[in-house]
Specification:
- The structure is a single chain.
- The chain has about 35 residues and is mainly α.
- It is built from 1 helix and no strands.
Length: about 35
C-alpha cells in the first residue's frame, strides 16, 4: 500500500468513526429488541 496523503488519511478516519457509530447504534437497538 502506498503512502496516504493528509486528506486521504482524514477521510479514512472519518469513515472508520462513521462505521463505529453505526455499529454502536445497531448493537444498541439489537439489545433493546431482545
Amino acid at each position: 500500500m502506498g503512502a496516504m496523503s493528509e486528506t486521504e488519511m482524514e477521510r479514512f478516519k472519518e469513515v472508520i468513526a462513521f462505521r463505529k457509530q453505526i455499529d454502536y447504534e445497531v448493537t444498541k437497538s439489537n439489545k433493546l429488541r431482545f
